[in-house]
From TrEMBL:
InterPro entries: BrxB. Pfam families: BrxB (PF08747). It comes from the Bacteria. This is DUF1788 domain-containing protein. It comes from Microcella frigidaquae.
Amino acid sequence: MSTHEVAKWEDHLVAVMSGRRFRNMEGLSGEVPFFIYPYEPTDALEIAQSKKRIKTKLAQQGIEVLEVNLYDLVVELLKDRGVWDDLIAMEPDTPKDDFREGLRSMLDPGDDLAPAIQARLNAQPFDIFFLTGIGEVFPYIRSHNVLNNIQTIASNKPMLMFFPGRYEQSQTLGSSLVLFGVMKDDQYYRAKDIREQEA
């Protein structure tokens, strides 16, 4: 994405999210207010800067954004359990598959991540919830599992997930999250592509 395209989408996102229709979750036909902002992984730094500007522009309009970065959340959970330093020490000598499975067993999306996310959502008032850090936690946490497990706790405010890859939507095949543009994360039917939303 060129700098011009990033700026164009940034303006579009601000226009959509500052609108009453978006914040009041109108026109969702009973679906959860989950939105995906897919982007090319090579644009991650530009998107991170754009995200900061989006938050600032929304704050200037009195719209509070709560950001939950999954990577930061995972590190905090592992440190709270007292296992972070041990994991760092054992990672170089542990086969990758074993290490990944060990992390997966410690970071269940329903039992561990959803309650931690809910605690953050309950800790302060906000208008829009940003979910970030998706690429950093793959493959031990899959984005579709997180989305499925937060549907009941995060559906009273709009949620925007910044996704490094593609969100493919097909009437015949359903919708799929394709992480980094090459790894199909799995099907997830309930989110909408924010780029397709009207301002």
